[in-house]
Write a structure and sequence with these properties.
about 325 residues; 15 strands; 7-stranded parallel β-sheet; alpha/beta; about 15% strand; Rossmann fold
Length: about 325
């Protein structure tokens, strides 16, 4: 049970990709879980307390952290390549607001432990992402708005340790996360859910950017949730921790794995005119292994199959999730 039995724990974004798995794991460990989300309550695990509202609003942040022992701040905005700049304000402003408000509300409320979810995007354009090298240069231009907001969240946590002595804050930087409850809108989704959706919608041939040689680090959502539990318990000292699979996956291998589990699979056409600007993006997972004893255990094929099986069962509902990019006013 670790440190979680009978503790009151808030999970922001607890209806989404990582938060849903995290809520389930916390319930299994005997925690009393509260979920804060803009989504519908039906996406929550059974047995949690649900609070619907916007974390960009200070009053809602104060309300959701009240009486909590621990907070997992998982809520965030993510999107496909290119949308990070075209929807610059939709990335930057909400992150700055809800990251700042929630941590300050938690401090004022006397929350004991807090986990801040940063991002792989905070890293500069290098091939191997090592935690202590993140601030050596600016983030990649395609990620800069979300990345700088995430960096400011990390800096805020450090500032609270320096001024207030609050050293029970964990910082995690997940790799490319995939799994059930993701955003499957092909216009805004990340690569795995977008490919699954387009293949399910019978796009044939399925057009994939690049030549398939690009290398990435993909990690299943439930593995990330397990890493977060370990980080809050064993690594809550404001030291950033990468949560990656520790495995190199080419885009070609990824596409072939997805197609293997698609009913009536399409043919593949590689669009080599749109190659990725970064050929290799991998995470060093040494710190996660040594500091908190974390290693991802879900093979890519198993995680992809579970994700596609979930999609097949929930195809009618995947577009009902809250999507900030479909809102004219993200401040609502």
């Amino acid at each position: 049970m670790g440190i979680y039995k009978d503790k009151k724990v808030l999970v922001t974004g607890g209806t989404g990709l990582i938060g849903r798995s995290l809520g389930e794991l916390l319930l299994q460990r005997g925690a009393k879980v509260r979920v804060a989300s803009l989504d519908d309550e039906s996406r929550c695990p059974k047995g949690v307390e649900f609070m619907r509202g916007n974390l960009m609003h200070w009053d809602f942040c104060k309300k959701v952290v009240k009486d909590m022992d621990y907070v997992f701040h998982v809520a965030g905005i993510k999107g496909s390549v290119g949308i990070g700049n075209s929807k610059a304000a939709s990335f930057l402003v909400p992150h700055l607001l809800f990251n700042t408000h929630l941590l300050e509300a938690a401090r004022q409320a006397g929350v004991e432990r807090y986990l801040y979810t940063s991002s792989i995007a905070v890293y500069p354009p290098v091939e191997l992402f090592v935690e202590d090298k993140a601030w050596d240069a600016p983030p990649h231009p395609s990620d800069k708005y979300a990345a700088w907001a995430k960096r400011m969240g990390e800096l805020q946590a450090e500032a609270y340790k320096v001024e207030y002595g609050w050293d029970k804050i964990a910082i995690v930087r997940p790799a490319n996360v995939y799994g059930p409850y993701d955003n499957f809108d092909p216009k805004t989704a990340m690569v795995i859910p977008a490919l699954i959706r387009r293949a399910m919608d019978r796009e044939n041939p399925l057009v994939v950017w690049g030549d398939g040689s690009e290398i990435r680090d993909f990690i299943f959502s439930r593995d990330v949730a397990k890493g977060m539990l370990l980080a809050l318990e064993k690594g809550a000292n404001c030291t950033p921790i990468n949560l990656g699979s520790g495995r190199q996956t080419t885009i070609k291998e990824l596409v072939e794995t997805i197609i293997k589990y698609i009913p009536n699979p399409p043919s593949i056409r590689w669009d080599k005119s749109k190659e990725a600007k970064q050929k290799v993006r991998l995470m060093d997972t040494t710190r996660a292994r040594k500091m908190i004893g974390f290693e991802a255990t879900t093979p890519l094929s198993e995680g992809i199959k579970e994700t596609i099986d979930w999609y097949l069962k929930n195809a009618m509902d995947v577009d009902k999730r809250y999507n900030v990019f479909k809102k004219d006013n993200y401040m609502e």
